[in-house]
């Protein structure tokens, strides 16, 4: 399990995070298979990656040759076993549902040898519980990337109860190879980042619900008053309201009332107001 010699990867789930992770892995020189159950999502993911790389070329951050080489290293599949065949590392980025992730890790564990690093991009779920269903749980770790993946430098590498130091070190080294700046965290609910980020996000939503101020003004308060690069409500729109609701529900179960999701969040998710990806959340997106 040597991150420096890894040549191929599979990324499971081609949504907001999956397409970003696949892009950066391809830019790092790995051949990447992006897997999803939904073919239209895969087509959309390839368009998003192409657009991100085109923007990089426009800004002079990526050469046209590197963009084309990265696109050439990407393929897509709707067949899980075909997607992961022969890969050195799998990074899972399907929706934040424990049972779904466990089903996938069980299949991966049964079909892939113990030398394959298995990582989940979960924002908050217990890596130990995901790993528990897998033969050779020692090769399972969390690799928690941030949105947008091609820009954000942080990766939380999460060490589960049974993760081997070889797996944790491989995930740290792979993150560095991808140009990221990883931190090593124990498997506690919400890790180092989501727990605090969600607490601030939920409080900002309660303030909107109570009419304390508009979303734009609450965000402005944190940007101008506290030096946040982006307000918590705008961030929620970028992350996805459904994603944040799932995390809040999980942290509520694990850590109690302080993570109870506000009614406004539940209502918006029920109406399909999921943030930027659906055109509306706490803001309107064109
Ligand atoms: P998303 O809803 O944008 O994408 C999920 C993708 O998974 C969709 O393309 C969907 O078609 C696909 N999918 C659904 N069921 C599947 C299955 N059984 N097999 C394969 N693919 C399936 O979600 P996202 O925001 O990319 O989040 C994915 C994971 O990353 C979650 O665990 C989330 O908590 C975590 N995460 C999200 C963010 C963020 O900012 N959005 C940040 C860090 C981590």
What's this entry about, in short?
The chain has 286 residues and is α/β, with parallel strands linked by helices. It has helices at 16-28, 39-58, 64-72, 80-84, 98-111, 127-131, 165-177, 194-209, 215-226, 232-239, 241-255, 263-270, and strands at 8-12, 31-35, 74-77, 89-92, 117-120, 140-145, 154-159, 181-186.
Instruction: Order the strands across the largest sheet as they lie in space.
Output: 3-2-1-4-5-6-7-8
CATH class descriptor name of the largest domain? Alpha Beta
How much helical structure, as a percent, in the residues?
Answer: 40-55%
Strand content: 5-15%
The helix/strand class is: alpha/beta
Number of helices: 12
Mean pLDDT: 96
How many domains is the backbone divided into? 2
DSSP, total strands: 8
Order of helices and strands: EHEHHEHEHEHEEHEHHHHH
Query: Mind telling me the CATH superfamily name of the largest domain?
Result: NAD(P)-binding Rossmann-like Domain
Bound molecules: nicotinamide-adenine-dinucleotide
CATH architecture of the largest domain: 3-Layer(aba) Sandwich
Categorize the overall geometry.
globular
Residue stretches low in confidence (pLDDT < 50, at least 5 long) are: none
Rg over alpha carbons:
19 Å
- CATH fold descriptor of the largest domain: Rossmann fold
């Amino acid at each position: 399990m040597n991150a420096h010699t890894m040549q191929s990867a599979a990324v499971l789930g081609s949504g907001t995070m999956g397409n970003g992770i696949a892009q950066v892995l391809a830019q790092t020189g790995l051949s990447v298979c992006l897997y999803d159950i939904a073919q239209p999502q895969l087509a959309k993911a390839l368009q998003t990656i192409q657009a991100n790389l085109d923007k990089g070329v426009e800004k002079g951050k990526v050469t046209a040759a590197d963009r084309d080489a990265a696109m050439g290293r990407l393929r897509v599949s709707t067949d899980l076993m075909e997607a992961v065949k022969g890969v050195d590392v799998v990074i899972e980025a399907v929706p934040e549902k424990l049972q779904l992730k466990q089903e996938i890790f069980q299949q991966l564990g049964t079909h892939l040898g113990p030398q394959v690093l298995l990582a989940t991009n979960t924002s908050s779920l217990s890596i130990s519980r995901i790993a528990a269903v897998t033969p050779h749980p020692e090769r399972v770790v969390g690799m928690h990337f941030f949105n947008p993946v091609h820009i954000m430098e942080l990766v939380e590498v999460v060490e589960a109860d049974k993760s081997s130091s070889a797996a944790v070190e491989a995930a740290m080294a792979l993150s560095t190879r991808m140009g990221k700046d990883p931190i090593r965290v124990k498997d506690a609910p919400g890790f180092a980042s989501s727990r605090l980020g969600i607490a601030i996000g939920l409080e900002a939503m309660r303030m909107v619900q109570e009419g304390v101020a508009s979303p734009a003004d609450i965000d402005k308060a944190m940007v101008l008053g506290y030096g946040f690069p982006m307000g918590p409500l705008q961030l929620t729109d970028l992350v996805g309201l459904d994603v944040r609701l799932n995390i809040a529900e999980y942290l509520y179960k694990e850590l109690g009332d302080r993570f109870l999701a506000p009614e406004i969040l539940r209502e918006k998710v029920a109406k399909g107001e999921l943030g930027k990806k659906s055109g509306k959340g706490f803001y309107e997106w064109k």
